[in-house]
Sequence to fold (740 residues):
Amino acid sequence: MSPPLALVGGSFERAKVYLNGISLMKHSRFLPWLGLFLSLCATKTSGVGAVPLDLSAYDSSSEIRVESGSNLLNVRWRGSQGIYCELVFSLFNGAPLVKSVGTMERALDPAMVILRDINPVTLLTVGERDLEKRRGWNIFFDKVHAKPSKTSLMRLDLESVRVTSTSGTASVEFAEVNGGDFSGTLRFSFSSGSSLVRVEAIVSTTADARAILYDAGVTCADPSWRESVWIDSSDRLTRTMKRQNLAASSRSVRYRTIVAEGALGSLALFPPPHQFFYPLDFADNFGFVWHGPGYRNQILQPSIGIRQPLEGDRRYVPWFNAPPRSQQRLSIYWYITPGKGKDAIDEVARYTRRDRYEPLPGYQRFTSHYHIEHTLDYLKQTGGNAGADVPSELESPGFVQSFKRIGADIVHLAEFHNGRTPRLPTKERLDQLHLMHAECERLSDDSFLLLPGEEPNVHLGGHWLSFFPRPVNWVLQRPKGVPFAQEVAGHGTVYHVGSRDDVFELMKREGGLMWTAHARIKGSTGYPDRYREQPFFQSERFLGAAWKAMPADLSVNRLGTRVLDLLDNMANWGERKYVLGEVDVFKVEPNYELYGHMNMNYVRLDRLPNFEQGWGALLQALREGRFFVTTGEVLIKRFVAGTCESGETLRLKPGERQSIEFDLDWTFPLAFAEIVSGDGQHVYRETVDLGQTREFGQGAFRRSLDLSGRTWVRLEVWDTAANGAFTQPIWIDGSTAVEE
Fold:
């Protein structure tokens, strides 16, 4: 056992107190290291071998115990499920960085070693961002995969090691790593009560117009793991024996997880569940893990890890933004357990609630913006013949299975997303609508509601979504002489829209909602800003915009700032607008990697609407801002300012501070919350440090704020994996405040 270095920089007397405090004298195995420990206590930075070790920012009260000796650095902490974990690092250049990974039943037990002599590995692929298109970095329509790129195995030149800590967290940072024109450090982060280790190369470049991808994992010359284990995308547990020594290959898996299983336990590897997935049009499972030797002709030894295929879905493939001097965090999680591979996967799956959005009493789970094109597939395969045999994949479509599996109560489609739709003659258009409405009703049941919707993208400018409280028949053009509304046999009232005014009138008559799809990016670049002064935007028929983690940037500690900024802008414009989550993908099948691309709207609605009776209550709840958006790992069970919830109006009393209260449920340890407010011109952020929260927790939080002069306030919460949730604004009215 190596000697503790927790008090390096302290006095001899403090060292004796520390030794007595943990009763080292009672454990004979510590005695050989006692002299070395006391000699190290006199200096602030100690050289171990040829590598300087800096513990000046390590706090002896931390629950993460850091020890050193014989050119090794030992980190021990309490993990998940009541076990203890240990990582031992080698401080010799050229030696495997991680000497061992192990677990213990008790804090001072000898470790049961799971893996020995492994190296973390990161492959960084650097391509070129097209900064001329759209608005520079705020871009989706880029094909980085079709342009030259270079992949580098990042090299660790061990020059120094620095340990930092708080009471419940610690990190060990190795300098430095280099790959291509990027350089930085390799950081291991630990949290007490969690068997997760976040391993990340934190790198930057001074070069401009860089877009990146990364692969990360572990490698070993003679692996001490016996098998690579995963659950494939068809839910089969799969194992590959080490002795087979198969060439490196990618695998499509559940939970984005692959496991190195040893004789005494397992090490699971997986990415941050949402931040790892840059936006694509298709959510196919492209094989996001690998195992075997010779991976990409760069990692020659046996290895396993997480990966991103360079070509994506072969359409628009934007990769990650990497602006100059931004600190890109190329992250992977290690999960340590004494269990088998299947046990490790089950434990990892808990962090994403098994890729399912948990039910929450008083809420319905609503998800929007899917170009499934079920109706067009149906017409194509049946030839439009009502009596034709219906293929089984249309009779019981995979997308319905997928949505039910993931926990969606209500799904809002965005059908007919092709260039012909606005030009369709009336009969063809009505036939399509009739079939879409009929299929949505057929595929809905008492616990699942499939709702018609479109991304019509006509007349207003930019791209937008339509949503009605019942089936509505409307044609996207209005030829000269055709009335706005007319009765058509077999279809009832049919609307023809040929202008902004027509669209607005339709929404008013039918009680519909519309909002900007993928605001300020893609086909909505410049919107809704360009029509913010228009009557249709300022009306209650225009909800606002939709949120998605797009574009992607690994230097940001939250997702989707593009639309979060817009939410604040719209609130300061003075219009009561809201932002719901959108997914915006084509096709959904049960074996897809849908969860990594998803978010969910939790709408305050006591019961699921009935298709036949209409779903106006859902539109009313959206219009009133009675919902929050989440990636799934963080749930905002309650958020109030004073006594008001999101969408309601808080009436201020002069000089009174407001109580802001929020109740949370989370899986990963939380990082921070922000209480965001505005006064019509400026945005204010009150950050609440949640860094001492433990995994799988629930908690109630309260802050008292002076909201004088503010016109709105909302909440965001983010965890250590950049998963998060945000509410809609609470509106503030100080104009009627009177002295009591």
In short: The chain has three domains: 12-352, 363-630, 631-740. Residues 84 and 106 are 6 Å apart (CA to CA). The first strand starts at residue 45 and ends at 48. The first helix runs from residue 12 to 21.
